[in-house]
Amino acid sequence: MAEFSTPHTNEDLPEDLQAFVTELFTLARTGGDGAADRLAQYIQAGLSPNLTNHEGNTLLMLAAYNGHADVVTQLAELGADVNQLNDRGQSPLAGAIFKKEEAVIEALLAAGADPRAGHPTAIDCANMFGNAELAQRLSNA
User: Fold this and answer.
1) Which percentage of the chain shows pLDDT scores above 70?
2) 87 close to 67: Cβ distance less than 8 angstroms
3) How far is residue 82's CA from residue 113's CA, in Å, rounded to a whole number?
4) pTM to 2 decimals?
5) With contact defined as beta carbons under 8 Å apart, do 72 and 40 qualify?
6) Looking at the predicted structure, is the pLDDT value of residue 1 above 70?
7) Residue 5: how many CA atoms within 13 Å on its side-chain side?
């Protein structure tokens, strides 16, 4: 098997691979028909479930932030880290709370997301956005 060095940016990748990586992150971001299944096929074929983009966002982070609970659930089931922080120290759960994505919040909690991970934490986000009930629930988790 050929050995490859890890590129620092997408621009370091060959053009066809850049297009493929862009497609993967677009699938996670936009969701839609078959996105979860398509990503699952790539992961089952060897793609890291924790692939990150230039901002440290994983496929799961982008799916969570954009409200795709089905994609979040599928990625978590395939080994994606539900607590992996992006380069800004943000967690997928905090992002879902910021975007008020209730189904994603539930999917992440069911998959074991830590409400104390990142900065601000998911608990902090719930408090910042006036959701005291959720903040209390997360504090008791």
Assistant:
1) 92
2) no
3) 5
4) 0.88
5) no
6) no
7) 4
